[in-house]
Amino acid sequence: MPANQIPTPSFPGGRIQRAKPTPFQRPSIDLSGPPVARREWKVVSVLDIRAGDILPGVGEVGQVTSVFAPDEDRPWLVTLTGVHGNATTFAGTERIYAFVAS
């Protein structure tokens, strides 16, 4: 090798390829809203009913009121009030058929 030539390092394959940058991704906004809970008709305890659930004879539940017995931890009576004002009272141990989130 002549004295005025600088040796170049040898690379496998003979040349270096540049890595392509990842594509630019703009932040997106989902206009469909948050995921909707899957709902189905099933038999549940009256204690599992929440506002927004649907019951035959009551309709959409707007308010759930529980009355506790003085010596027990479980509710003695549960009153489910529909959004239209109609109310139905159940014993705290009853199971009812309702359209609830699963």
Give your account of this protein's structure.
By secondary structure, this protein is mainly β. It is 0% helix and 38% strand. Strands 2-3-4-5 form a 4-stranded antiparallel β-sheet, with no helix packed on it.
Structural class: mainly beta
Instruction: Please identify the top-level CATH class of the domain at 39-101.
Output: Mainly Beta
What fold name goes in the CATH topology slot of the domain at 39-101?
Answer: SH3 type barrels
* Radius of gyration of CA atoms, rounded to a whole number: 33 Å
Q: Characterize the overall form.
A: elongated
Strand content: 35-45%
Strand order, main sheet: write it out.
2-3-4-5
Average pLDDT figure: 81
Strand/helix succession: EEEEEE
> In terms of per-residue confidence, which ranges show pLDDT below 50 for 5 or more consecutive residues?
none
How would you summarize what this structure contains?
This protein has a domain at 39-101: SH3 type barrels.
